[in-house]
Amino acid sequence: QFTVLVRNIPPDPDESVSELVEHFFMVNHPDYYLTYQAVYNANKLSELVDKRKNLQNWLDYYQNKHSRNPSKRPVIKVGFLGCWGEKVDAIDHYTDKIEGLTRKISTEKETV
């Protein structure tokens, strides 16, 4: 048994990468070919998911804070390190950020 690393497979409009690899090895090495495992670089996707999870934690925190005192919506400063800048509604801010990241994640999933 042996393992082969195949990189930079050119795209084909008629076949997927999986079909290309399968076809190539079945034609050229039918007696030795068993299976393959495709590996994709999903580092950027992982970073986006981690950022969204972090933002979701902050959103949950501010929603809990608001539920304890419904008469006052929590606000944050969106400037440098939260020290300067405009004060905005924290729940709306984090909701918008999460929605933006969700769109980016969907786009990144399509490229992976």
Automatic annotation (TrEMBL):
GO terms for cellular component: plasma membrane. It comes from the Eukaryota. GO terms for molecular function: calcium-activated cation channel activity. Residues 1-111 form the CSC1/OSCA1-like cytosolic domain. It holds the Pfam family PHM7_cyt. InterPro entries: Csc1-like (IPR045122), CSC1/OSCA1-like_cyt (IPR027815). This is CSC1-like protein. It comes from Noccaea caerulescens (Alpine penny-cress).
